[in-house]
């Protein structure tokens, strides 16, 4: 039996307040979340419905010029420069005057992600914890996305499609773990989209693939897809080959290489395919692969709910395609959130961390707070679910 | 002399950073201690807090390793100081 109320809130309050710090990639997020004590949470699994109130959700993104990716060292410097200012703003917005009394726990991302940015944030988290004498909770970034998605959409037990700049996983819950049913074998979907965006010299902000989506919407030739490799490998995906292929097409297009029969008419030399067409075809191809493995996972675990999380989850076309698949299955539902919660943020770390805290999982020695670049979703023991 | 080579971290730097209180210096040391050194055979750091002073003792295999290691620790110390300044 799961009981989320075993640890009483500090200072005799009737609610818990958690501060979440996220900085595993180029987004730095600080959020404050509040959980009231609910009677029903003493008897069973209500972790998807905590009546969470978001007191503040602040994010600052390190952006690089179009055509460039973000490097760990520069991203870490960005996080160091902004971290304390963002914490201050988040606390002020949440009307927390004395963190020593008003905060129950500080949650931070332990991994997975880029080492240097993770480290620069954990330094601030440790310092705050010692200054204010508040316990720390280490959160797996992927679990953060899942728990935030469940809380916002109230999906009880969905198959989770986690698609972002660094991760592509199909996840389902079983026996106190979020088990990975399928994942990418090489690069993440957001990375594939971002790198194609770099080839096109269009910016990557605000979320992976956003500007590709905008270009794809302008495609005038939607019934004529450019044929791309379709690389589903069982429950897994591979995307590096697709990227290399579409990159070479884009380069031929920019150079005006008339020998390329896919792009130019052999007789007249007329251009058949535009950049918009390429973006549209890439999206359709990649998302069809995602929908396929998600559907298979749904059949495996016999559920009708899908929850899409992660930065690429904001993509409206992906949500549409997933909804179409769910409609074709018996009363399936797609749950997705908007950019406030899809894109990396501090609130999701606070949400997952607060669930962990309420189940008694806190850092006892600062040695446990060492960040790690590799931290698989199924390594986390999910004590807050049946 | 395999052992001798491993031990020869001859390039040394000592930093002493004064904080306002001894508690702050202790906090800084506690925050810095847990993180592992990637190549302990090439670079070593020790943190000590004495009263309000944080003393950091660096040893490196050459001046390049020493410079890189020192600058990364200073970056962390800057974050700690800013956090203490703004949030204590």
UniProtKB/TrEMBL annotation, chain A:
**Note on how the cofactor is bound:** Binds 1 divalent metal cation per subunit.
Residue span(s) of domain Gcp-like: 54-350
- The UniProt record gives the binding positions of a divalent metal cation as 141, 145, 162, 344
UniProt-annotated binding residues for substrate: 162-166, 194, 209, 213, 315
Q: Which keywords does this chain's UniProt record carry? A: Acyltransferase, Cytoplasm, Metal-binding, Nucleus, Transferase, tRNA processing
Catalysed reaction, written as an equation? L-threonylcarbamoyladenylate + adenosine(37) in tRNA = N(6)-L-threonylcarbamoyladenosine(37) in tRNA + AMP + H(+)
Transmembrane helix among keywords:
no
Q: What is this protein called?
A: N(6)-L-threonylcarbamoyladenine synthase
Automatic annotation (TrEMBL), chain B:
Q: Which GO terms describe its molecular function?
A: chromatin DNA binding
Domain of life where this protein originates: Eukaryota
Return the protein name. Answer: Transcription factor Pcc1
Write out the GO cellular component annotations: chromatin; EKC/KEOPS complex
Name the family the entry cites. Answer: Belongs to the CTAG/PCC1 family.
> What biological-process terms (Gene Ontology) are attached?
cellular response to pheromone; positive regulation of transcription by RNA polymerase II; telomere maintenance via recombination; tRNA threonylcarbamoyladenosine metabolic process
List, alphabetically, the InterPro entries matched.
CTAG/Pcc1
